[in-house]
What does this fold into?
Amino acid sequence: MVGATLDIEELRERLEDGLKGDLLRGELLRGVLGTRLGEEFIREQTEEKVFEKLFTLSGLAWRELLVEKLKAEIDKTQGEHLTTLAKFVATARAQKWNNSIEMIHKREEFRDQLNQIFATAHR
It folds into this structure.
C-alpha cells in the first residue's frame, strides 16, 4: 500500500497495471474524493480481480474434471483395445531403439575398418 507521505502527483507517477495500479488509483481517489470513496474503489477492484481469478480457476477445474471423466469413460469402453495397442507401440519403440543402438555400433565398426584400411595403405 502507498505510504502516507506521498502526495497526489507522486501517486499519479507510480500508477501501474494490475492490482497494484488499482490500489494506487484508490489512494488517489481517497486523497481527492475522501476516504470512503477511495476505500470503496479499492474494495471493488480487489473483489473484481478475485472474482475473475476464481472464475478462471473454476473453468480450469471443470476442464480437468472433464478430462478425467473422459479418460475413465474411454478406459471403460476401449481399455482392452488401448492396452493391446499400447503394448504393440511400446514393443515397436523398443525394437526401433535397439536397432538404433545396433546401427551406432555398426557405424563404429565400419569406421574402425576404414581406419585400418587407410592405415595399412600408408605403410
